[in-house]
Specification:
Strand content: under 5%
Number of helices: 9
Mean pLDDT: 79
Shape: elongated
Oligomer: single chain
Distance between the termini: 73 Å
Number of strands: 0
Low-confidence stretches: 1-12, 199-206
Structural class: mainly alpha
Largest sheet: none
Number of domains: 2
Radius of gyration: 28 Å
Length: 206
């Protein structure tokens, strides 16, 4: 009788246990699959947002139920900054820097220095060297030692002596490419500040 009771108990309880384990494993698997799906959706949405496809990104976020996890506002602001820099305007970028100054300091970012230098260069380009002197004194006088690069020294030279007539060493400072470099630097720092996804994940290795 005792053996029969054990057998009956085994026949009843073991299937329950197996069923419980199966349900637990199934639940874990579903959670894992949901996480993976949402992760992929977020990467795609970040890519779309960074590329400026805000409406498409919004629709995908709604469908994937990840609206709260996306960085739409971050990328919309970033797009505004990038557009302003492409128009050779620095005000919007400086506003962004002011809003994120504490984080940028922790990251030891050089973005503000580069933007301030560009403002100085544009003043020199327009022949407003005295204004450039005042600007540099106000915003660049207290630069930390590690940011006193050769580039900073050369821009100070431009402010002090003007544009050398036959110097190739200074030609690059008046190149349009500097604005492109500034945009790329901003993108990099924006990604670091907000820890957004890296677009390189979407490009195959060559």
């Amino acid at each position: 009788l005792y053996i029969e009771q054990i057998s009956i108990h085994y026949l009843v309880e073991v299937p329950k246990l197996k069923n419980t384990n199966f349900q637990a494993n199934t639940t874990d698997a579903l959670k894992q699959e949901t996480w993976r799906s949402q992760r992929i959706s977020r990467l795609i949405i970040d890519y779309l947002l960074r590329s400026g496809y805000f409406e498409t990104a919004q629709k995908l976020a709604e469908q994937a139920n990840v609206e709260d996890m996306c960085n739409k506002t971050v990328f919309m602001i970033a797009k505004q900054v990038e557009d302003s820099l492409s128009r050779h305007e620095t005000d919007r970028c400086l506003e962004w820097i002011a809003d994120n100054r504490s984080k940028l300091r922790r990251l030891k970012s050089t973005l503000e220095t580069m933007v301030r230098l560009q403002d100085c260069i544009e003043l020199v380009r327009r022949g407003e060297r005295l204004e450039a002197v005042h600007y540099a004194r106000k915003f660049l006088a207290n630069l930390p030692k590690e940011q006193w690069s050769e580039q900073v020294v050369k821009v100070m030279g431009l402010i002090g002596f003007g544009i050398p007539s036959k110097s190739r060493a200074y030609t690059e400072y008046f190149s349009e490419k500097r604005w492109d470099q500034l945009i790329e630097l901003f993108k990099h720092e924006n990604a670091r500040v907000y820890k957004v996804s890296d677009l390189k994940r979407f490009h195959s290795k060559t």
